[in-house]
Amino acid sequence: MELLFPLLILALLVPMFLGIRRQKKEMAKTTELQDSLNIGDRVMTTAGLHATVAALGDTTVDLEIAPGVVTTWARMVVRERVADDVADEGAVVDADGDESALIDETPEQTQHRLDKE
């Protein structure tokens, strides 16, 4: 019974310590990302907005959310840098991963392909 109290305290403190450690690591990673931003980087904000970095200030970042539309945000809202997938957005890919197979497909061919599946 004498060991129960110290074990209970240990069981409560260890997860709390590990959680604080993980939170510090995530904060350091986010700070490093925000400090390494460059003009032209594609980023995602904490609100889920995808944009391109247009200008950088000490505590702010100007994000181009559409051609010619630039908004100013705090640097802290930048969550992550995203891959530049702008060139591949309109590509059509079939189930096998073949882009060219579906590009010249007629509506009848599409219906026939869907009926087979």
TrEMBL record:
> What UniProt keywords are attached to this protein's entry?
Cell membrane, Membrane, Protein transport, Translocation, Transmembrane, Transmembrane helix, Transport
- Please state where this protein is localized: Cell membrane
- InterPro entries attached here? Preprotein_translocase_YajC
Q: Which PANTHER family match?
A: SEC TRANSLOCON ACCESSORY COMPLEX SUBUNIT YAJC
Q: Does the keyword Protein transport apply?
A: yes
Question: Which protein are we looking at?
Answer: Preprotein translocase subunit YajC
Which stretch is the leader sequence? none
Q: Where is the composition biased (Acidic residues)?
A: 95-107
Residue ranges annotated as transmembrane are: none
> For the region Disordered, what residue ranges are annotated?
94-117
Query: Where's it mainly located?
Result: membrane
- What protein family is recorded? Belongs to the YajC family.
Provide the species name.
Rhodococcus olei
**Membrane topology for this entry?**
Single-pass membrane protein
Top-rank taxon of the source lineage equals Bacteria
